[in-house]
Amino acid sequence: MMTPYQQKKFDALFDQHINALRRQGKADSTIDMYGRSIRRIAEYFDICPDKLTQNQLKEFFATLVQTHSWSTVKVDRNGLQFFYKYVLGKRWDWVEIIKPPKKRTLPDIFTLSEVELLINRARELRYQTFILVAFSMGLRLGEVINLQIGDIDGARQRVHIRQGKGKKDRYVMLPEMAYQAMRRYWATHRHARFLFPAGRKPECQAVADNVMNRGGLQKSFKAIVEDCKINKTVSIHTLRHTYGACLVEAGLHLRAIQHEMGHECPKTTALYTQLTDATHQNTGEIINSMVDQLKLTFTGET
User: Fold this and answer.
1) In a 3-state reduction of DSSP, which class is residue 211?
2) Are both 284 and 162 inside the same structural domain?
């Protein structure tokens, strides 16, 4: 068990670790995971992890491989490496870890008919609008709920996605149907800043300090999928995968898809396609044509 002196030392080193991560501009999620990696190994041995031996590290990772996912193993290894280099000022001696065989799986995707069904079955306009916006622009969950009114440029048919994955900005095409849906939904609450403010009633949404809750949104989406009797392994992110796959089927150039989806590496986009002879296409025309196939009835319409 850590002595009071060891605990005080660990707390000081942990604070240095977190501060070093922040100085390097790491994302909050990375700071949280790398911080957890130091706490995990400290709790495993119940000592301050500044003087661990190579054999202790091997023991820790041998156990971790058996009890946690490979992604957790990699995160803990990277977190400890950061701790050694930037906090302890020590050279990190790599611990040999056998990587399990890579599983190559492809995600399930919705058909356009299923996307249409999801939107039409959603019982609240905010969920209908969210699903259409997420699908029609291929956005991640956080990118949708954090949309601000000033990010939407109807005249140029563009939306400014701020600080997406990797803390990078990008512009994406704004389909006309999605734009009209945004306008219709915003008119119900008229929040000065957010498109998707927290709250269920318009009067609460109008003065909300935050955006919609991620967990509540995911739970509601799952309920909508179940109501539609769609028996696939899906989530909100499946809408993004479906967007990419639909654009491939529509014949859009791979590089254009990569740009719209904000992929850093073209290999990520290549999950959606086996294109060999791609030709230049009109991105806006193809995206609008794809979205316009949806036959939707929004809550409140007669």
Assistant:
1) strand
2) yes
